[in-house]
Amino acid sequence: MVFTIYGDHWRKMRRIMTVPFFTNKVVQQYRFGWEDETKRVVEDLKANPKAATEGTVLRRRLQLMMYNNLYRIMFDRRFESEDDPLFLKLKALNGERSKLAQSFDYNYGDFIPILRPFLKGYLKKCQELKDNRIKLFKDYFVDERRKLLGSPKSEQQKCAIDHILEAEKKGEINEDNVLYIVENINVAAIETTLWSVEWGVAELVNHPEIQKKLRHELDTVLGPGVQMTEPDTAKLPYLQAVIKETLRLRMAIPLLVPHMNLHDAKLGSYDIPAESKILVNAWFLANNPEKWKNPEEFRPERFMEEESKVEASGNDFRYLPFGTGRRSCPGIIIALPILGITLGRLVQNFDLLPPPGENKIDTTEKAGQFSMHIMKHSTVVCKPRKV
Ligand code: HEM
Fold first, then answer.
1. Which protein residues touch ligand 1 with a CB less than 6 Å away?
2. Of 66, 159, 192, which is best to mutate to test ligand 1, by the most ligand atoms within 8 angstroms of its C-beta?
3. Most buried residue among 6, 82, 135, 192 by CB atoms closer than 10 A?
4. Using one digit for the tens of pLDDT, what is the confidence trace for 288-342?
5. 18: CA distance to ligand 1 center in Å?
6. What are phi and psi of 106, to 5 degrees?
C-alpha cells in the first residue's frame, strides 16, 4: 500500500488493512502483548549485570521487542530470543532491503535516465532479495497460518493475517496482495517505530533533567513501582510531550513518502504537471526557526506551553511526522502507544546513562532515501532503580 498510486486499488488495500491493524480495538487487544514485551526487555536488562555498569547496545534488544510487537499482531507469533534462527534470518533480509533502499543507486536513474543501464546489477540484486523475502514470509508465516486456519481444531484467537486471508478467500485480493501486506508492515511499521524509540532513548540520556522530570511524572501519577500500561498514557502529559518532541526533532521519515498529483495543478505561482513526484520537507516544517521557538533545542515543554494544541495526527501543517490527510500513516494508532509504553517503562525502571567515561551519546544522524535514523547504535547504561 505504501507506494501504491492513489486510486481504487489503494482504497481497497487500505480498507482491507484497517480492521486487522488500524483500529482502537486492535490496540486494546494487543496492548497486553506490548506491555508483556516491554516487561521482558526490563527483565533481560536487569538480569544482565553488565547493562548496569559497562552498558549495552539497547537497540538490539528493542529490535527483538519491536518484531514481537508486530508479529504478535500479524501472526500471533513471537521470537524467544535475539538468537532465534528465524528472527536472525528475517532481520538479515529486512536489513539488506533497508540498505539497498538507502543506497544512492536507488533512484539516480529517475533523475538521470541516461544512467539507467548502469543500474542493471543493482536491480538484479533487488529482485533476488525481494524474491527471498517474499518466500520467507510465505513459507514460514503465511502458509503456517493457512494450515492452522484449515485445521478443524483451530481455536486460535483471530490475528491480522486471518482477516487478510479471509479477504483473499472472498476473492477481494490475491496471494501476491497478501504477501505484499506482510512485506509493507515489515518495512513501514517495525524500523520506523524502532528508530523513534532509539531517538527517544538517546535524547533522554543526553538530557538527564528531562529524564528526571519524566520519571517524576511516572512516579507521582502511577505510584512508585507501579508499571505503566497503555491506558495510563492519557494521564501522562509529559511523556506525551517527550514523544512529540522526539518525533519533531528526530523525524523518522523527514520527507514523508513521495506523493503524486494525478492532475495538472497550480501551487502558488508554480505549475505542477500531472504525475509529478512531490517530496514534502516535513522535517523543515517542524524545525523552521521562523515558526518554532528555538527549534534546535530538545524541549518537550513546548508541547505543553506554546504548542499545546499541536497533535501528531496532522492538525497543524507545521508538524506532520505521520503526514496528513488520506495518505497519512494509519499506523499512528499503534506507534504512539508502543512508544509510550516502551519509553515509560524504561524510564520507570532504569536510570539511562551514557557509557562510563562519556557524558553524552553520539546522536549523529544517518539519512537514507526516506529515513533519518541514528548513525551509531550507542551503548546505554541501564542502571536499575531502587524502588
Ligand atoms: C513512529 C513510527 C512511524 C512513523 C514516524 C511513520 C511515518 C509514516 C509516514 C511519514 C508515512 C507517509 C505519510 C505521507 O507521505 O503523507 C507513513 C505511511 C504509512 N505507514 Fe507509517 N509510520 C510509523 C509507524 C507505522 C506503523 C506502526 C505502521 C503499521 C502498523 C505503519 C504503516 C504505514 C502505512 C501502511 C503507510 C502507507 C499509507 C498509505 O500510503 O496510504 N506506520 N508512515
1. 1-2, 14, 21, 184-185, 188-189, 192-193, 196, 252-253, 256-257, 321-323, 327-331, 334-335
2. 192
3. 192
4. 999 999 999 999 999 999 999 999 999 999 999 999 999 999 999 999 999 999 9
5. 13
6. -50, -45
For the four alpha carbons of 85, 86, 87 and 92, in that order, the dihedral sign comes to: positive
Pairwise CA distance, residues 382 & 54, whole Å: 9
Question: Has residue 2 been placed in a domain?
Answer: no
Specify binding-site residues.
Answer: 329
Average pLDDT, the chain: 94
Region 94-118: mean pLDDT is 79
Q: Whose CA is nearest to atom 9 of ligand 1?
A: 322
Counting ligand 1 atoms within 8 A of each CB, the residue from 243, 324, 329 with the most, and so the one to mutate, is 329
286: which 3 cell numbers? 517542524
Question: Of 345, 296, 339, which is closest to residue 200 (Cα–Cα)?
Answer: 339
Query: Domain range spanning residue 55?
Result: 8-384
Q: Is the pLDDT of residue 154 over 90?
A: no
Please write the tens of the pLDDT for every residue from 66-100.
Answer: 999 999 999 999 999 999 999 999 999 999 998 88
Q: From the CA of 325, give the closest atom in ligand 1.
A: 16
CB 217 within 8 A of CB 236: yes
Q: How far is the CA of 241 from the centre of ligand 1 (A)?
A: 20
Give the CATH number of the domain where residue 322 resides. 1.10.630.10
Binding residues for heme: 329
**Rg of the chain in Å (alpha carbons):** 22
Which grid cell is 166? 479471509
- Expressed in angstroms and rounded, the spacing between residue 322 Cα and the centre of ligand 1 is 6
Number of domains in the chain: 1
Task: Compute the Cα dihedral for 16, 99, 329, 57 and give only its sign.
Answer: positive
Task: Please tell me the residue having the least CA distance from ligand 1 atom 40.
Answer: 2
Cell numbers placing 266 = 497550480
Is 234 within a domain? Answer: yes
Residue 383 CA: distances (Å) to CA of 13, 46, 211, 341: 45, 8, 13, 19
Whether 153 shows a pLDDT value over 70: the answer reads no
Does any domain span residue 1?
no
Asked whether residue 236 is domain-assigned, the answer is yes
In angstroms, the CA 172 to CA 181 distance is: 14
